[in-house]
Design a protein that fits this description.
280 residues; alpha/beta; Cobalt-precorrin-4 Transmethylase, domain 1; Methyltransferase, Cobalt-precorrin-4 Transmethylase, Domain 2; 3 domains; five-stranded parallel β-sheet; five-stranded mixed β-sheet; 17% strand; elongated; binds S-adenosylmethionine
């Protein structure tokens, strides 16, 4: 049975192709790729001549999966690449891998470049826990909902952004995240004009003011842990819930979920509040 190799490719600097990627791309029967012309150039550069290039982009991935599974079934190995970086990370590849797994064939990852990880490790921000948001929705409610979650996000966040929208995004983020949240922007990683600039969003907005060129990753540091709530703040919160009709049990649970306070303190404060469920 053939295998599907998921092959990461350079995000700018061709020197970042791995020895194993060259071996695999040179030996497979077919390479599935987003853009056959673009990946054809990389394959020529490394001297790989697969018998087939299969177009597999956002619109054609399903059809490509059928073809790839036929080849695997016939005993051929196939590789999947995206235009740059790791397939499936804000790029096509996920549906193809899922279809191949579903069909019972082996999937072998070949790790290599990814803009998200490169920007994360260059940021100087915590890396123990991180989340890759990819591209944010451009506007509307979907964007607002994600952003309001990110304000309290305790993990480092990695976001892809277009250079055209960077200026407006940084002004928006400076307002939203304030001057306590540290961040970093990596531009043109692995290329001639590579830069990583670190600071608050106001500092980043000042640095990237005007026309920005190249490819961009934004990394946002974790939100600071919430200040522990005082007994007065807890009581006020409980009273608001009680006057809105909440019972004591739900009021305690909602307060625990909203404020940073020990359960015992919230429970004891709840004993001094008039709850509708306890009124006769
Ligand atoms: N799958 C890719 C990966 O693993 O890196 C990401 C694909 S996503 C469609 C492309 C985005 O990645 C770009 O818009 C940019 O935000 C980021 N990116 C790609 N190459 C980059 C580079 N050399 N420097 C900075 N960001 C880059």
């Amino acid at each position: 049975m053939g295998k599907l190799y998921v092959v990461a490719t350079p995000i700018g600097n061709l020197g970042d192709i791995t020895v194993r990627a060259v071996d695999v791309l040179s030996s497979v029967e077919a390479v599935a790729c987003e853009d056959t012309r673009h990946s054809g150039r990389l394959l020529r550069h490394i001297g790989a001549r697969p018998n087939q290039l299969i177009r597999s982009d956002a619109h054609t991935e399903q059809r490509a999966s059928t073809r790839v599974i036929e080849l695997l079934d016939a005993g051929h190995d196939v590789a999947v690449v995206s235009d740059a970086g790791t397939p499936g990370v804000s790029d096509p590849g996920t549906s193809l891998v899922a279809a191949v797994v579903e069909a019972g064939f082996e999937v072998v990852p070949l790790p290599g470049p990814s803009a998200a990880l490169a920007a994360l490790v260059a940021s100087g921000l915590p890396t123990e826990r991180f989340v890759v948001e990819g591209f944010l929705p451009r506007k509307g409610r979907a964007r607002q909902e994600i952003l309001s979650d990110l304000v309290a996000e305790p993990r480092t966040v990695v976001i892809y952004e277009s250079p055209r929208r960077l200026g407006a995004t940084l002004v928006e983020f400076a307002e939203l995240f304030g001057d306590q949240r540290m961040a970093s922007i990596s531009r043109e990683l692995t290329k001639l004009h590579e830069e990583t600039f670190r600071g608050t969003f106001s500092e980043l907005a000042a640095h990237f003011d005007g026309v920005v060129k190249g490819e961009i990753v934004i990394v946002i540091g974790p939100a600071p842990p919430p200040e522990p709530a005082t007994v007065e703040v807890v009581t006020e919160h409980l009273e608001k819930l009680a006057s809105a009709g909440s019972d004591r049990r739900s009021g305690v649970a909602a307060t625990m979920a909203t404020l940073s306070a020990p359960k015992r303190m919230v429970y004891e404060a709840s004993l001094a509040v008039d709850w509708p469920d306890l009124t006769v």
